[in-house]
Design brief:
The chain has helices at about 5-10, 30-40, 50-55, 105-115, 135-145; strands at about 15-20, 20-25, 65-70, 70-80, 85-95, 125-130, 150-155, 170-175. With about 180 residues, it is an alpha+beta fold. The longest helix has 14 residues, at about 135-145. The chain is globular, with a radius of gyration of 16 Å. The structure holds coenzyme A.
């Protein structure tokens, strides 16, 4: 998918997106507690700490997305460019409030993020998914199709090794390479 197609698909105009009365924007520092509550309402996501969400909404705001609908936060993506491999965007968490699901919002948030100036030069996306998270597998497979990019995966953070015993293994999923979304119109 080239830049123009990516922008058409995500409805991107500049950094933010407005579509179906859902507005996408980088989070503000004061949004941390709202993000914390949204994630708490979206199992099986790890809740992390309020402090972690505060850092995401400040240091990592350029690579995070908060979706607003009717004045309420309805969707969230946290991500960062990998230290030592900045052409790779690592997606930490994706959350959509139950009432907002099934309308393409998660996909739109990811596409909108990739089209941001702050993601200039990104040509790979990574995330981790547990084996049982059907929705997440479907989301990222769909994204790979949209980007017309190969997808591969392998077990990475293992139950009883990198993760405490009884914690489901996280599979590392990689999409790319894909054409770096430029910010030229
Ligand atoms: C995963 C999640 C973010 C998806 O949000 P969403 O806005 O409903 O997803 P989208 O509408 O953009 O769907 C994208 C694709 O995934 C598919 N999909 C989404 N949820 C699905 C489900 N429960 N089962 C199967 N496929 C699903 C959609 O059908 C769509 O594919 P399609 O275009 O071929 O139809 C949402 O279900 C959620 O917040 N879950 C709880 C938190 C979580 O598990 N996050 C995982 C990522 S870390």
């Amino acid at each position: 998918m080239d830049t123009a197609e990516l922008k058409r698909a995500s409805g991107v105009l500049g950094q933010d997106t407005t579509s179906d009365q859902i507005t996408l924007a980088a989070p503000r520092p004061q949004d941390g507690p709202l993000v914390h509550d949204l994630i708490a309402a979206c199992p099986p996501l790890d809740r992390n700490s309020a402090y972690c969400n505060a850092l995401q909404c400040t240091h990592f705001a350029d690579t995070c997305v908060l979706a607003w609908g009717g004045g309420e936060p309805v969707g969230w993506v946290s991500a960062y460019r990998k230290p030592g491999a900045p052409q790779t965007l690592f997606v930490w968490q994706v959350a959509v409030a139950e009432y907002g699901r099934g309308r393409g919002l998660a996909l739109r948030m990811l596409q909108s993020l990739l089209a941001r100036e702050s993601c200039g030069g990104v040509e790979r996306l990574e995330t981790t998914i547990t084996g049982s998270n059907t929705a997440s597998w479907a989301l990222f497979r769909r994204l790979a199709e949209r980007l017309r990019a190969p997808l591969k995966h392998r077990p990475w953070l293992l139950d009883g090794a990198e993760l405490p015993s009884g914690t489901p293994t996280e599979h590392l999923l990689t999409i790319g390479p894909f054409a770096p979304p430029s910010q030229q119109a």
